[in-house]
Request: fold
Amino acid sequence: MVRMDDGLILGRYRPIEEAGSGGYGTVMVAWDTRIQRRVAIKEMTIDPDLVPPPTEDGTPYNVAEIPGLEEARTAALLTDPAIVGVLDFEIEGVIAYLIMEYIDGCTLTQLLRDFPGRITPDVVGAVFKSVSHALQVAHENQVLHLDIKPDNVLINRKGEVKVTDFGLSKLSNAEGFDRAAGGTIGYMPPEQMNLLPLDARCDEWALASLTYEMISGDNPFFADNLEAAKRIIGDAELVLPHLCMEGLDPQLDDVLFYALEPDREQRYETVADFAEELQPFLGNPLKGQRQLQRLVGAATDDAPESAPIAEADPDSTAVYEPTPKTSRSFRLLKRLWAVVNCGLLGAVGLSCLSPWIGTFQAAPFWVLLAVVVISAALLPQLGSLLAVVAFGVALVMQGAYLAGAALLVTCLLWWWFSGRRLFETSNAPLSVVPLSVVGLGAVTPIICGYFLKAKDAVLGTLFAAVLALALAGSGASELGSWNPMELWGSTELASSNTLGLDTIRGLVTTPGLWIDLFSWVVAAALLALFCSRSNRGLAFVGAVLAGAILILAVFARTWAESAGMVVMPHPLDFLRSVVPLAVGGVLCIYKVPARD
Reply:
């Protein structure tokens, strides 16, 4: 929101726009008319009822007790390129002004939200190096941060990482570090939540939590309140970090878990020790800075020239912030996506095994299905593997040896080289399962191209096509369409027709299947390439071209299967062919796709 008055703040700073606000203040972007530069100003209103009485020398306020002054004094001690600089602290009437260095960029929160697939080991290495260095500088000056989180990590347009907001920091005294007055759930160790005396290992835990979130794409310590947060930390069963991101050394797991120990006595003594152990297992920080530069450029493309400082949390002393609702909702939708994909495929596969494990009334069926669904919800990469294996085993057990073996081998190759890496790489291809139920399997290459980089999009689409072909044995006449009721609940040890081997053979020998397969792969690769620049305009063009290829494939299939007699497809087929174009266009207009 642009400030409308023409007056200067403190007779020097001309307001440009509001960058954010919270219960403890407002951050303004302003122009320093004296030095001719932009600054960020945190404005904090002093409650008249809480204003200390005048001092004996006539000073209007006892400034030592005014909120925000400790933040200014603390940050002023810390002069380092990895720390947002504090320039001045002034009081005018009942308003306190903290003058800070202006950062033209965005927060780590924004990058994690908008570009989850592009957080690489190099990016993690660059962020970790700068944040750990900033904390080491602070600790050497006897200062704790006590609120390390993505909101307080800023990245400028050069890809440089800076730590801001020492609003909860405490200067040390002769008796050691003070107790914390608050923090952010998900990044607070147990001793901070229990209001115990704190030391550098508190910031170490927060840094480890932030690093785990960058690697896995999720913070497993989020909760609605302190008591729930304490239980989660004590009972946490974390996915091994190296399984969440390709290119990480498995030795990283022990180092990160060591720093995340609930008992601080079991952690590294200092952040420097932690950084020395972990940094070698992360990516190249220099490459990471160049990647961050591109990401920040993409994130701020649509921002006005006077983009505000990425000070996402001006309420620097907010106590025990809960998990943001939007973040929880997004994670819930992702888990639901995985559960639908894996649950439906797992249920069909297990129902085809009813001669061995029993029908829907039998306990083994529900136990095994529960394993698949719970795995999909908690460990999506594992859930996708279990669901496909269940269906592949069903094919083999029902006598479709070649089809089952082909699906299992294809699944293992896809999962090892792509599916196990990220949530998106494991679940985008499996979207073909629910989509094909309504005859919209051709949307799958659009989903793969939108979420994945070109290599993973091609591998995922090829695997989705193999899976769709196996499902099409239920009696479909084309790739990307199947009837679950034809497979659901098969109770007899079937002949070769039970799982549709005759149908599969028929599809393989028709030119339509190969036209569909070719169009799927080309559409996915094309959209992924156009999305790789993280530009909405280019991504939208890619979605239109990919959708057009899929539409042309329907005409080509109709022509080929009619021996050149008919070109125009059935109206329903044509309408279905337009859906992928519409889905891709809407997704790309909504936001720049995340790439890996």
Notes: The domain at 105-301+310-323 is CATH 1.10.510.10 (Transferase(Phosphotransferase); domain 1). Residues 325-351 form the longest helix (27 residues).
